[in-house]
Amino acid sequence: MNPGPAQVNLPPSLEACRITALPPAAYYIADFITEEEEEAILHKVETAPKARWRQLTHRRLQTWPSDLVKDTLLDARPLPDWLENPVVSRILSIPLSDGEPNIFAGSPHLRPNHVLINEYPPNTGIMPHKDGGAYYPVVCTVSLGSSLCLNLHKNKEDGALDPELVWRILQEPRSLLITTADLYSEYLHGIEPVSVDVNLSERSIANWNLLRSPSLYKDGVNQRETRTSLTYRDVLKVSKLGNKLGPMFKRL
Ligand SMILES: O=C(O)CCC(=O)C(=O)O
Ligand SMILES: [Fe+2]
């Protein structure tokens, strides 16, 4: 495993970088990968074969090693090295708290086996949603290229269609955000389709004290550029047929 250049200074445990303003549980590591690693990953994303991209109305995405079919991962190949290292090895190297195992120690495959790559140009977002039952309830998101706010919502008591915005998390480039437990199961998350995030302050941003560069946002504003996210999760069900599928069933 490659621990990477010395520039990253990982916390001794996730507990040390917990977003304490939020219900259980979210963790934010501002400097999770280096600028060189960010550039290398973005290059791999951008030069992936065209067939890897799925174009939605405003956003495009890639899934590795493949899409899910009925909540099941059919393609059981391991993640390619550029998605595995340094991200997965680093996630697995951090204990939950002193002397405890890492956050995937209780998951069926003991590690993330699936990565969703989403690209958000300015003015694009994702509707508030929950991630559902296909995954072990731990989501690890690496942000690349630009900062933006992830909004956390709760359903309104009266069952209204619009969930209520309750917190915002600012995700800087090269950061890692981990959400789990109630934040995974009880709350919705989404990204507003705006070109500027506004009203950023210590009071409105849950992870303000964990940011790399809070001074960049002292005017309360974040001008968005294209932000690419890598979402790492452990898909609970993996098809036993996966390894035997012929190349016809696989995307490159
Ligand atoms: O890009 C992100 O940070 C969020 C993506 C997301 O919520 C999802 O893919 O389920
Ligand atoms: Fe999601």
TrEMBL record:
**GO: which molecular function terms?**
dioxygenase activity; metal ion binding
Q: Which UniProt keywords apply?
A: Dioxygenase, Iron, Metal-binding, Nucleus, Oxidoreductase
Instruction: Provide the Fe2OG dioxygenase domain boundaries.
Output: 111-236
GO cellular component, as recorded? nucleus
Q: Name one Pfam family in it.
A: 2OG-FeII_Oxy_2
List where in the cell it is found. Answer: Nucleus
Family stated for the protein in its record: Belongs to the alkB family.
Q: What is this protein called?
A: Alpha-ketoglutarate-dependent dioxygenase alkB 6
